[in-house]
Amino acid sequence: MRSDIRVCAAWRDAHDRPVYTLGDTCPACGADAENSAPAPFDPEDAYGEYRRALKRRGRE
């Protein structure tokens, strides 16, 4: 799963706070933008079955 929201890869060095964008480069400094957060994954997801059931129920 990939997020469309990206963050400046050099924000800690070049900015006071994170700079978010939808593009491939930072609009403020021109540095590369990277995925803002990795998708959460836990192989031992204790509540995954219930979460997926709620999601299916919501589509019906």
Automatic annotation (TrEMBL):
Keywords: Ribonucleoprotein, Ribosome biogenesis, rRNA processing. One of its GO terms (cellular component) is ribonucleoprotein complex. One of its GO terms (biological process) is rRNA processing. It comes from the Archaea. Gene3D superfamilies: H/ACA ribonucleoprotein complex, subunit Nop10 (2.20.28.40). One of its GO terms (molecular function) is snoRNA binding. Residues 34-60 are annotated as: Disordered. Belongs to the NOP10 family. Involved in ribosome biogenesis; more specifically in 18S rRNA pseudouridylation and in cleavage of pre-rRNA. This is Ribosome biogenesis protein Nop10. It comes from Halobellus ruber. The gene is nop10.
